[in-house]
Write a structure and sequence with these properties.
Blueprint lengths: L1 H5 L5 E8 L2 E12 L4 E2 L6 E2 L4 H15 L9 H4 L13 H6 L11 H4 L7 H11 L14 H15 L3 H10 L7 E3 L21 E2 L4 E2 L7 H5 L9 E3 L1 H15 L10 H7 L31 E5 L3 E6 L4 E7 L11 H17 L5
Antiparallel strand pairs: 1-2, 1-11, 2-3, 4-8, 5-8, 6-7, 9-10, 10-11
Helix pairs in contact: 2-7, 2-8, 10-11
Length: about 350
């Protein structure tokens, strides 16, 4: 990890390794902000980017399924009126979670949405989602899609009659005692609001916002609609992510004492779907070149975030590896982490098998 900082793979990082309900390793490296020289700490808050998908949006859907307020086979046309007369009417919740809806992966909606008054931007983005053409027939191919999770946020908030961030905070994070997973709603007067005392890892020196982003969501589409979206916007610490993942693993093994994570639901959401490389909201190791390396089993689940964040966990052994970095700081063009991640995971998994962590 120290060498990775020296080699410019990322300016700074936090690494957490756990197994069987115990944290074996939790250390910080490098800088949280290159321009201020502020050092990284183990409780640094990171922009988790696409970890929002499994750690917020998918769990919000799970909560609504648990309460019989949503069914995975329900179609968009029956849930959101604007989709009724569109080719997307028959897309199911399951297909959105599994990324085989037929929707594109990414569209820079923020460029057009920025022309609207602030209070109209969410509606403007959703109008874009309704009009967006499918790239291929629903269910025929798997294509990782931000758009699908933007629609899932819309579904969740319509069914729950509550904003996504408030739903997951009130029904999942707070009951588990997790305070360091949260969305930051953007207020033009004070973007970080009451969390200004926390240390945030800086992300990009953003050319169109003309500033170094720190404590403000990096994803442009999420930023433009106020900081809360289904595909991005969640912030958190490594320890908070571990607490949530460990609760899921505990439920998976039918040892859960919580009322909202049943073993059946967790197992359902972690069952392979589509091409087998996805589950409902989570990823699985690919056959070749997986970021998880060579030693995580095919039954493992995880996810990556664009800002340089990731987690992988193996349900059978209870191994969890969380790597949070600010690899997009100061430029998103730094992609060296792609080769580094599998090497790091391989090294850690070897050490675990050799009994290095006790």
């Amino acid at each position: 990890m120290h060498q990775a900082v020296k080699d410019g793979i990322f300016p700074g990082a936090v690494l957490l390794v756990a197994k069987a309900n115990s944290i074996y390793f939790h250390e910080s490296y490098g800088c949280a902000n290159l321009f201020t020289g502020c050092k990284m700490a183990t409780d640094t808050v990171f922009d988790l980017a696409s970890l929002t998908k499994p750690l917020a949006t998918a769990l919000a859907v799970m909560e609504l399924v648990r309460n019989d307020r949503l069914c995975l086979d329900m179609q968009l046309g029956s849930l959101l009126n604007p989709f009724k007369a569109t080719p997307k009417a028959s897309i199911t919740i399951k297909q959105l979670l599994c990324h085989n809806s037929g929707l594109p992966d990414y569209v820079p909606y923020y460029k057009g949405v920025s022309q609207y008054p602030v209070l109209q931007r969410t509606d403007a983005l959703r109008e874009c989602l309704v009009r967006e053409a499918l790239l291929y027939p629903t269910g025929s191919q798997v294509l990782y899609s931000d758009l699908g999770f933007m629609i899932l946020r819309w579904v969740v908030e319509t069914v729950a009659k509550q904003q996504l961030d408030l739903l997951v905070e009130g029904t999942i994070y707070k009951p588990l005692g997790i305070n360091d997973l949260f969305f930051i709603k953007i207020d033009k007067k004070q973007p970080v609001k009451d969390r200004s005392e926390r240390l945030f890892a800086a992300t990009e020196q953003c050319p169109w916002r003309n500033t170094v982003l720190q404590g403000v969501v990096h994803d442009e589409n999420a930023y433009m609609v106020g900081g809360v979206e289904g595909h991005a916007g969640l912030f958190g610490t490594a320890e908070a992510i571990y607490a949530l993942l460990n609760a899921l693993l505990t439920a998976f093994h039918r040892n859960s004492k919580t009322v909202f994570f049943s073993s059946e639901l967790v197992r359902l959401f972690w069952r392979p779907c589509g091409n087998g490389m996805r589950t409902l909201g989570f990823d699985r190791p690919s056959a070749k070149g997986s970021s998880s390396g060579r030693y995580f089993s095919p039954h493992s689940v995880g996810h990556l975030g664009f800002t340089g964040t990731s987690f992988w966990m193996e349900p059978a052994s209870g191994i969890i590896i969380i790597l949070l970095t600010n690899r997009v700081h100061p430029r998103r063009t730094n992609n060296k982490i792609r080769m580094f991640r599998p090497q790091l995971h391989d090294m850690i998994m070897k050490q675990i098998k050799e009994g290095a962590y006790k």
